[in-house]
Structures are given as structure tokens and as C-alpha cells.
């Protein structure tokens, strides 16, 4: 059988890092990384493109666009793509690529490592090998993260651990698959993977691609005593605020000083800006209708609900939606569409 062609898109991160006197920093190229795992040549025909070589802490929305462009300019020439990325912002990039390259019939797999490739006890070799393995699978599609033997939808991943090799978890959604050395075991809901579908359920030969983001999005975590005047302070610089509420959707009636939160939030959205409500609790999601302290925000125009989405997906999706339109109702429509498993359809 003819081996599939896979493009490795290198961006830096821990996997490419070396210690050169000032702490770990990216030093190895994508080509150099492939030489550490010669076994990949048995899986696929590999090519490498170096999109950038940075610590993922420095990854910005403009870099997400650059990675997406690198993939799409070679999309027709390859059967799948593996993006080598630092772990700290990998979940953000995976979510962003899920919105920039939608309904991809070809797999786009992100991976990296908790220790550098050149480390004696690295996890990089197995992660890279298994990511290429997954990218060659006939049923693999869309954007995902393959890391530590688990495959997670690109919109459902969160970095849960800073040092352990099982760094990522799938939040509010089952993993797509597990990889046992060189065998892919799909979770029951995905045992028979469906083909990529485009808009209105049509089978897609190519993804739906976008090239605009609005980076003026601010994630604000509620803390006891927070001054509600923070909204007026943010107004000159941001088009949207993602408010991480307490519990299932609790928002204080009053801060220590300033206007009440309801007045401040209503003023924010009535000025044409967007507010997205989510919860700072990691699992099970938001429901603004349960408590009095949340119900006032349930149906106000311009206030969107993050449901059971991850914070990383909410940030990326808000940037994507605002990049396409400034019409509040259209932003709400885009935000509420389910994309790459990013939200459960219970709302």
C-alpha cells in the first residue's frame, strides 16, 4: 500500500527546546525533531514546514492565523497534518484551528511534550509517533490533540497538569480515542467515525476556511469584592468580555464600590459589545436560569452563554465570531453553532 503523506508543521515549544543557560527555549527545528523518531518513516511519507520556533507562551492570535495558512497552502498535497506545539497554549491553538479550518475531512493533529525531545526521559518521541499514527488513520478527521496516549477534540482539551506526561484532559466530552502503543482504540461514540460534513450536512471534500479573528477579547474571572467599574476600564480596549462566573452562573449584585454588576454588564452590551457568560468551575458547565443571581442575564441581547464549553474554546470562538461580523445577532448565531464538538446541544 502507498503510504500517506503527512505534513509536520513545527512551531517550537518544549518539544523543540534545549537548555542554553537561561532556561529552556526552542532550539531544534522540525527537521531535527523528526530524526529522533525514525520509526515514523514506516508510518507515512513526511515533510516538514517550520511555521515559527517560539515558546507557546508567546503564541498570539496572529500566529494561529499563520499556522492555519501554513496548513491550507499545502492542504491538497497531504493526507493529514501534525502540528508540533508547546503545551501551555496548545488548547487555545487547537480551538482556534477548529474555528479557522472547519469540517476538515483530513486530520489536523496537535501534539508536543512535557519534556524536551533531547531529554533522556522524554515523552516527546511517543507523542510524535502516535500523532503521526493517528494522522494516517482513515477515520481521523478535523482538529484534535493527541497527547499521552489520548486523542481529544480540538475544542475540548485543557492542560490539567504542569509536569505529568498525561498533561491534557477532555472537558465535558469523551475522548475521541486512546492510542495503545501503535493501536488506535476509539471511544464507543466514535467507533464508526462519520465523514466530514460541510454546511447543512453536505459531505465536504475541503474544509470551510476563515482568515479573520478579532483579538480584542478579554477573559475576566470574578473574585469576591471585584469592582464592577472594571467594565468601563476595559471598554476602550476590548470588544468582548468573557465573564467567568461563580458556580453554575452566579454574578454578584454589588461589588465593594461602583455601580451594581447588572448595570455595568447591561451598559457594556447595550453599547454594542459582547459579553459571554461561563463558569470558573472546570466541569459540567453553566446554567444562568438556576439562581436569582444569574437569571437576569439569561436572555438579555448581547449576552452569550458558554454552556459547557472550555474557556479556551470560548476565547477562540469569540475572536472568530467577531472576526466575521459586528452584527450582534449574527455573532450570537455563530457562537451558538456547534463546531467540532465544542458545546453540548442542550441549550
Give an overview of the whole structure.
24% of the residues lie in helices and 24% in strands. It is α/β, with parallel strands linked by helices and 347 residues long. It has an eight-stranded mixed sheet with strand order 4-1-5-7-8-9-12-13, sandwiched between helices. Strands 15-16-17-18 form a four-stranded parallel sheet, with helices on both faces. Helix 4 links the parallel strand 7 and strand 8 (143-147). Helix 2 crosses helix 3 (90-100), helix 3 (90-100) packs parallel to helix 8 and helix 8 packs across helix 9. The longest helix has 14 residues, at 311-324.
Topology (SSEs and partners):
Blueprint: E1 4-12, E2 17-19, E3 24-26, H1 30-35, E4 44-54, H2 61-72, E5 80-84, H3 90-100, E6 101-102, E7 108-111, H4 124-135, E8 143-147, E9 150-153, E10 157-159, E11 168-170, E12 177-180, E13 183-186, E14 208-209, E15 217-221, H5 230-234, E16 240-245, H6 261-270, E17 274-279, H7 292-295, E18 303-305, H8 311-324, H9 328-336
Helix pairs in contact: 2-3, 3-8, 8-9
Amino acid at each position: 500500500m502507498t503510504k500517506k503523506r503527512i505534513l509536520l508543521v513545527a512551531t517550537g515549544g518544549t518539544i523543540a527546546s534545549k537548555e542554553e543557560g537561561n532556561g529552556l527555549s526552542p532550539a531544534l527545528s522540525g527537521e531535527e525533531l523528526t530524526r529522533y523518531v525514525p520509526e515514523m518513516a514506516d508510518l507515512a511519507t513526511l515533510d516538514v514546514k517550520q511555521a515559527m520556533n517560539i515558546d507557546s507562551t508567546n503564541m498570539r492570535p496572529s500566529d494561529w492565523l499563520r499556522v492555519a495558512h501554513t496548513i491550507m497552502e499545502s492542504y491538497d498535497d497531504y493526507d493529514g497534518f501534525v502540528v508540533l506545539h508547546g503545551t501551555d497554549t496548545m488548547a487555545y491553538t487547537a480551538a482556534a484551528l477548529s474555528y479557522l479550518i472547519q469540517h476538515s475531512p483530513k486530520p489536523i493533529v496537535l501534539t508536543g511534550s512535557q519534556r524536551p525531545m533531547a531529554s533522556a526521559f522524554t515523552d516527546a518521541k511517543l507523542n510524535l509517533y502516535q500523532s503521526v499514527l493517528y494522522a494516517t488513520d482513515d477515520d481521523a478527521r478535523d482538529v484534535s490533540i493527541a497527547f499521552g496516549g489520548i486523542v481529544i477534540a480540538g475544542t475540548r482539551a485543557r492542560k490539567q497538569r504542569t509536569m505529568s506526561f498525561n498533561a491534557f484532559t477532555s472537558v465535558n466530552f469523551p475522548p475521541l480515542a486512546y492510542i495503545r502503543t501503535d493501536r488506535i482504540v476509539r471511544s464507543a461514540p466514535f467507533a464508526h467515525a462519520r465523514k466530514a460534513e460541510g454546511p447543512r450536512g453536505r459531505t465536504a471534500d475541503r474544509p470551510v476556511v476563515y482568515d479573520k479573528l478579532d483579538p480584542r477579547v478579554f477573559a475576566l474571572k470574578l473574585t469576591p469584592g471585584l469592582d464592577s467599574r472594571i467594565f468601563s476600564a476595559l471598554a476602550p480596549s476590548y470588544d468582548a468580555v468573557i465573564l467567568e462566573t461563580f458556580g453554575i452562573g452566579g454574578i454578584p449584585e454589588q461589588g465593594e464600590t461602583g455601580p451594581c454588576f447588572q448595570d455595568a454588564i447591561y451598559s457594556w452590551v447595550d453599547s454594542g459589545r459582547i459579553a459571554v457568560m461561563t463558569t470558573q468551575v472546570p466541569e459540567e458547565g453553566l446554567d444562568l436560569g438556576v439562581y436569582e443571581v444569574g437569571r437576569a442575564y439569561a436572555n438579555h441581547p448581547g449576552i452569550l452563554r458558554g454552556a459547557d464549553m472550555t474557556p479556551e474554546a470560548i476565547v477562540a470562538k469569540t475572536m472568530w465570531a467577531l472576526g466575521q461580523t459586528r452584527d450582534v445577532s449574527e455573532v450570537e448565531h455563530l457562537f451558538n453553532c456547534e463546531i467540532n464538538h465544542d458545546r453540548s446541544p442542550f441549550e
